[in-house]
Each structure stands twice: as structure tokens, then as C-alpha cells.
Specification:
single chain; alpha/beta; 7-stranded mixed sheet; 5-stranded mixed sheet; 15 helices; globular
């Protein structure tokens, strides 16, 4: 009896991650190009007036206007849906902050209540703490690592909870499953900013989250070329709640940027794995250096939330935070002695980048909150790139060894 031959996957969702990243969502034009095409146009034409009317009524499929949808954007969105486990639909945006704003504002109204940690990227905190209250939305800020504080803060009026894990810049880890369970008891949506973990290392929807947002500017592009963002979730939320909001408010992603992000996705897994390799070695090096007061890396067993990080993430990520012994002047001296690693507030790049959060990304956060969150004047945030790790360690070693010279 001849054994039946096992056939290859017939659906894109059945392929493994690396294959999805290279081929997912690709649609070829009549010219059968190998690389995805850039549909660099604002509008579309119709075969007839009846067809145009039908499209606007939603009676037939097709593109209308690139502020609404565009073939290159659709390819990027479809590839991200394949990558983001549990996601049914997605919408791309012009930036990561446009994604955060859209994910929140599209679903909230006056009288709603939002719970979020104090440990947020400065612009995210501005939306939560300043913009939402202007529209009559109540906000409660808590220590996101303390489940008891989530229990006390979430109530019957809570419509949404929002958090990032790992957090920026101190790399705190929030318990996605536990927070989601609490939120869902009162019918609240859970929105997770998954930028630091990337869709390669963490899958919030499989852990209970409803909505995932990314600044695609970071690891997804990964080469410092363009801005972009994306929101992923259920088809109901994306199509019925988010899409109309984005359509009418207009934070549209450029087709050219969408094409760049498609190209970035092709190498995302390779880059993130290598960046994790480098970050682990750098964290170990810094942990034993006499000029370092504290190292924060989720992949290290010295991290206060290491056990939870292991549950949620497949690896520790590409970001390392550390405190230089001394004060802000000492931290600046270390930054200014680096020759290979660039001073920049960006992250997730192929090039290693380092910043001083308290005077850059979190400069708008009040001093009391920064101290509460452990964002000290001597803290530095290192986004580890793809350079030879020994060169990076030598650069850091020189800058640190000269500190007290």
C-alpha cells in the first residue's frame, strides 16, 4: 500500500513565520513583478458611473481613495495579520502615535474611563493624561506592575486599558493575561503597545489582549528610513470602529512608506534574533562593570520581572537600560565618549542607538513621576543593533572606563 504523500500548506496562514514575513500578503500586478509594487497614487478610476456608485455604497469591492485604502498598504496590512497571532484585521497609519491615537480615540467617548500605567512613552502619556480628559474621558494612572492596583482602578465605567510591555524606557513587564482578565470582567478593551517586544517575540492577543499597536518606524522598518504605524485586532473592531475613524480623520500611511515596511518585514525575524543575541551579551558585560549602578534587561535573571518576561516573551528583546554610577553629567560624559554607538532617540534600528530618556523621550514627564518610575538622571537606554557585538562592547567599555579617568 502506497503511503499518502503529505501536501504542502495551501493557505498563507499555515506557513511558518519566516515564510509569512517574506511572502505574506503579496499581490502581483499584470506585470508579474517579483518585488511588491508601489501604487503611488491618490485616487482610482472606475469602469462606469454605476461601479463608482456601488463602491461608495459598499456593494462591490475595490479601491476608492488612498486615504481609505491602497493596494500597497493592503499588502503590508495582510502580512502583519499573518504575523500577529490572533489578529483578524489591521489598519496601517502614518506613524506609531497615529496608531495609538486611533486605537484609543476611535472607541472612547465622554464619560468613559481609561486605566493605564504611569510607565509610558512620553507621547503616549500625553494622549492618556492630557488629550483624553479634554474630551470628558476619565483616566486613572497606576503602577502597571502591581496587579492589585489594576484591580482597584478598573471599574464598571472602564471602557479601555492601555499599556506597553516591556515599557519605555525602564523595561518593566506588565502581565498581559492577568490584566486582560480583569478588564474583560467589566467589558473593557485591552490595548497593548507591543513595540519593544516586536511581533516576533510576543503575541499579546493570544495572551488575552484585544488590540495591538505598533510604531512600524521601529523594528518593522528597522533601518531608519520612514515613519509608519499599524493597529491589529478583531475584524469587528478594525472594520466597524477603527476604519471609519481613520477614514475621516486622515492619518494615512504613504504607499512608499508601506513598501519600505514590507521590505523591512522580510528580514524582521533575522534582525530581531541577532539583536537579541547582541543585547544579551551587552547586558552581561554591563552587569559586571564597576562604572554601572544597575542594568535592566528582561532576558536577564537579575531583572525584577524576569519570570513574567519568560512567560510572555520568547526572548529578552533588543533594548537594554542601565544606570551609570554618578549623575546626569556622568551619563552625558559616557554618551559623548561613544564613537560607534550613535546618540539618538529612535530605536529598533540596524544601527545601535543610545539615548538619555530623562532629557529626551521622557523630558515632558514631571520629575516626581520619573523618580517613581526609576527614570533617573543617570539612566541610558540602548537599542542594540546588528554590528559585531565585540565592537559594541569595546565602544561601551572605552566610554565607561574613561568615566573616572
Amino acid at each position: 500500500m502506497t503511503e499518502k504523500k503529505e501536501t504542502a500548506p495551501t493557505r498563507a496562514s499555515e506557513y511558518r513565520t519566516a515564510t509569512k514575513l517574506v511572502r505574506g500578503g503579496t499581490k502581483r500586478s499584470q506585470f508579474n513583478e517579483t518585488s511588491e509594487a508601489i501604487f503611488m497614487n491618490s485616487g482610482f478610476v472606475y469602469d462606469s458611473a454605476e461601479q463608482a456608485a456601488g463602491r461608495f455604497k459598499g456593494e462591490n469591492d475595490g479601491y476608492i481613495y488612498s486615504r481609505y485604502a491602497n493596494p500597497t498598504l493592503s499588502m503590508f496590512e495582510e502580512r502583519m495579520i499573518l504575523l500577529e497571532e490572533g489578529a483578524e484585521a489591521a489598519r496601517a497609519t502614518a506613524s506609531g502615535m497615529a496608531a495609538v491615537n486611533g486605537a484609543l480615540m476611535s472607541q472612547l467617548k465622554a464619560g468613559d474611563h481609561v486605566v493605564a500605567p504611569k510607565a509610558l512613552f512620553g507621547s503616549c502619556l500625553y494622549i492618556i493624561e492630557t488629550i483624553l480628559p479634554r474630551f470628558g474621558i476619565d483616566v486613572t494612572l497606576i503602577d502597571g506592575t502591581d496587579i492589585d492596583q489594576w484591580k482597584k482602578a478598573i471599574n464598571e465605567k472602564t471602557a479601555c486599558v492601555f499599556f506597553e510591555t516591556p515599557s519605555n524606557p525602564a523595561l518593566e513587564i506588565m502581565d498581559i493575561a492577568a490584566i486582560s482578565e480583569l478588564a474583560h470582567k467589566v467589558g473593557a478593551k485591552v490595548v497593548v503597545d507591543n513595540v519593544f517586544a516586536t511581533p516576533v517575540l510576543q503575541h499579546p492577543i493570544t495572551l488575552g489582549a484585544d488590540i495591538v499597536v505598533y510604531s512600524a518606524t521601529k523594528h518593522i522598518d528597522g533601518q531608519g528610513r520612514c515613519l509608519g504605524g499599524i493597529v491589529l485586532g478583531s475584524e469587528e473592531f478594525i472594520e466597524d470602529t477603527l476604519a471609519p475613524y481613520l477614514k475621516h480623520t486622515g492619518p494615512a500611511l504613504s504607499p512608499f512608506n508601506a513598501w519600505n515596511l514590507l521590505k523591512g518585514l522580510e528580514t524582521l525575524e533575522l534582525r530581531v534574533e541577532k539583536q537579541c543575541d547582541n543585547a544579551e551579551k551587552i547586558a552581561n558585560f554591563l552587569s559586571g562593570h564597576p562604572a554601572i549602578k544597575r542594568v535592566l534587561y528582561p532576558g536577564s535573571d537579575m531583572h525584577p520581572h524576569h519570570a513574567l518576561a519568560k512567560q510572555q516573551m520568547s526572548r529578552g528583546g533588543s533594548l537594554v537600560a542601565f544606570e551609570v554610577a554618578g549623575n546626569q553629567d556622568d551619563a552625558f560624559s559616557v554618551l559623548n565618549r561613544l564613537s560607534l554607538i550613535d546618540i539618538s532617540n529612535n530605536l529598533g534600528d540596524a544601527k545601535s542607538l543610545i539615548t538619555h530618556p530623562t532629557t529626551t523621550t521622557h523630558s515632558s514627564v514631571d520629575e516626581a513621576t520619573k523618580q517613581e518610575l526609576g527614570i533617573t538622571e543617570s539612566m541610558l537606554r540602548l537599542s542594540v543593533g546588528l554590528e559585531d557585538v565585540d565592537d559594541l562592547i569595546e565602544d561601551l567599555g572605552y566610554a565607561l572606563s574613561r568615566q573616572n579617568a
